[in-house]
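@channel sequence for tomorrow's demo:
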Amino acid sequence: MNKIETVKKLYGLFALKDFDGLRQILHEDISWNQMKGFPGGGQYVGSEVVIQKIFGGFSREWTSWKATITRYVESGDGVFVIGYYEGTFKETGRYMKADFACEYKVSDGRIIEFNQYTDTFLIGQAMGLTRDIMETNMD
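structure tokens (generated this afternoon):
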């Protein structure tokens, strides 16, 4: 399986909520780096932590969260993915759609690193967080 096929498989497994399959494709020592304003944002190390805190969180907190990929670009030791996230935050009932670019580093058919770039403001709006952020910045 080439690098792009590996990343495509990850998205397929996530869509199916196949956490056992995800355990097979994520390296046990993966470095997962999400934007700080993103749900569960920050750095996580280890496949079990990523599965429980990241992938599990989407199922618990969002209705029909999904990532739609519009382009895969292989580059060196990895793949860049361009697309958009969409979903409805359960607590607020607000829908959002936000563009993203993500970098995946792949080694021996397993994902060893993830780096995310997205519009966290739009996601924060759906979560009801931007009002607090805006009020804090106005002081």
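heads up for whoever presents: Residues 47-61 form the longest helix (15 residues).
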